[in-house]
Specification:
Layout: E1 22-24, E2 30-32, E3 35-36, H1 37-44, E4 48-52, H2 53-67, E5 72-74, H3 81-89, E6 93-96, H4 99-107, E7 115-117, H5 124-133, E8 137-140, H6 143-154, E9 161-167, E10 189-190, H7 195-205, E11 210-215, H8 225-239, E12 246-248, H9 266-279, E13 285-287, H10 292-295, E14 299-311, E15 315-320, H11 329-333, E16 351-356, E17 365-372, E18 381-385, E19 405-410, E20 413-418, H12 423-427
Parallel strand pairs: 4-19, 5-6, 6-7, 7-8, 8-9, 9-10, 9-11, 11-12, 12-13, 15-16
Antiparallel strand pairs: 1-2, 2-3, 4-14, 14-15, 14-18, 16-17, 19-20
Helix pairs in contact: 2-9, 8-9
The structure holds pyridoxal-5'-phosphate (PLP).
Length: 432
């Protein structure tokens, strides 16, 4: 195996990209919460999502400390019953964007009144289920949704507490696909067009709902907390005349995925939010909905290297047993990741190779220019850190590849919380 001269070699994987409780064990392997990742991969198979449970809990507590009672975990980042329970136990509400997410949270025994229901196109049947379950808040996204709620309440449903989602006209500096606060957006009621004012006034006048606040979410993987502050200013000024008790600034705080990236902490985001609130004398309580910042760096994904192809003068391809089925972010957004070998996390990574998956697409690339130790070999366990958000939750089983298992590790113990799919799962909905 030859080291590429085209890209700079990298040293050991930086610790800020690893879960809080990662450390090198006596055998030189990377351990998370006292569990050897190489052994874990052999025991549970690959690909495998490994979450540091105490890291998840610590981020949830940090969010509650930073924002108080009104903070919700955005479950679209990563959801299973164990995750919903953790967020709930640590004091967070849970943001669910569909009835599917709602039912998973309810199945984890999260009380319905701790759920905040989102979605830009909620079907009447979804709204009916949410009202029937008694979700705590519905975040209304359109005039059509106001009509649907009114129709449901006239048919006997209890009037829900609602926030109206507005688009503040603030463009987050992030990928277009995850930028949502600009005027040209499918989400919410535009502030600058006047739709937001019309929507709020209509909702306040309606007997079918109790308007408790205004919501905005400008996008995801946002590095500049100033953009989040700007959005808060816009919605605070907008909602002031209505005297509503709640404002939610959504989620969006970015995380570092690769060497050299640094992002503000949840605490810093909270402190900056309080500064803006004090400066503008905002009386309403301010909530937030972090997803990525809670879950992303809590997890690493473990893969097994199955094939290494050196194309002389072109590049080296390293194929692993997962791919965009378990992490579509590189394909969707051109996202970059770091790679390392858990058997030698301290090794210099002088080999530059393209890490690809096993799906039948050339675009099935996990890391375009991955840095790996030069003694990489077939059968090695390869890890991509910071894969706890929007990986498992956005995954697919394209090519009928089994969705991976998820384990939580804590104090040297392993808990399998999502098992790997089987042929029976693939056929469960195929009724012939
Ligand atoms: C309404 C809403 N809230 C919260 C989030 C979570 O964002 P993030 O994971 O970037 O914190 C999203 C993500 O798309 C969202 O749409």
């Amino acid at each position: 195996m030859t080291a590429s001269s085209a890209a700079a070699a990298l040293g050991p994987v930086p610790s800020n990209l690893l879960p809080d409780n990662a450390q090198v064990g006596a055998n030189g392997h990377l351990h998370v919460a006292g569990v050897d990742l190489v052994e874990l991969a052999y025991d549970y198979g690959t690909p495998l999502f490994v979450y540091d449970e105490d890291h998840l809990r610590a981020r949830c507590r940090e969010a509650v400390d930073a924002f108080g009672e009104g903070v919700a975990y955005a479950s679209k980042a990563f959801l299973c019953r164990a995750m919903a329970r953790i967020a709930h136990e640590e004091g967070m509400h849970i943001d669910v964007a569909t009835v599917g997410e709602m039912h998973v949270a309810l199945a984890a025994d999260v009380p319905a009144d701790r759920l905040v229901m989102h979605g830009n196109n909620k079907d009447t049947s979804e709204l009916a289920e949410a009202l029937e379950a008694g979700v705590g808040r519905i975040v209304v996204d359109s005039f059509d949704e106001l009509d649907k709620i009114e129709a449901l309440v006239s048919a006997g449903a209890q009037p829900p507490d609602v926030l109206l989602r507005v688009t503040p006209g603030v463009k987050a500096e992030t990928h277009d696909f995850i930028s949502t606060g600009q005027n040209d957006s499918k989400f919410g009621f535009g502030v600058s067009s006047g739709a937001a004012a019309t929507g709020v006034e209509r909702a306040i006048a309606s007997d079918a709902m109790n308007v408790v606040g205004i919501h905005s979410h400008i996008g995801s993987q946002v590095f500049r907390v100033e953009s989040l502050a700007e959005a808060l200013e816009v919605i605070a000024r907008f909602s002031e005349p209505y005297g509503l008790p709640e404002l939610s600034i959504g989620g969006g705080l970015g995380v570092a995925y690769v060497e050299g990236e640094a992002t503000p902490s949840i605490s810093k985001w909270g402190a900056m939010t309080r500064e803006v609130a004090d400066r503008l004398c905002i009386g309403a309580s301010i909530g937030a909905e972090p997803g990525r910042a809670i879950a992303a760096s809590a997890a690493v994904t473990l893969y097994k290297v199955g094939t290494i192809k050196e194309l002389p003068g072109i590049r080296t391809y390293v194929a692993v047993d997962g791919g965009y089925g378990d992490n579509p972010r590189p394909v969707l957004y051109g996202s970059d990741y770091t790679t390392f070998l858990p058997r030698c996390p301290g090794a210099d990574r002088t080999l530059v190779a393209r890490v690809v998956g096993k799906h039948c697409e050339s675009g099935d690339v996990l890391v375009s220019d991955a840095h790996l130790p030069p003694d990489l070999t077939v059968g090695d366990i390869l890890a991509t850190p910071v894969t706890g958000a929007y990986g498992h939750s956005m995954g697919s089983n394209y090519n009928k590849v089994f969705r991976p298992a998820v384990v939580f590790v804590r104090d040297g113990q392993v808990r399998e919380v999502v098992r790997r799919e089987t042929v029976a799962d693939l056929l469960a909905t195929d009724i012939g």
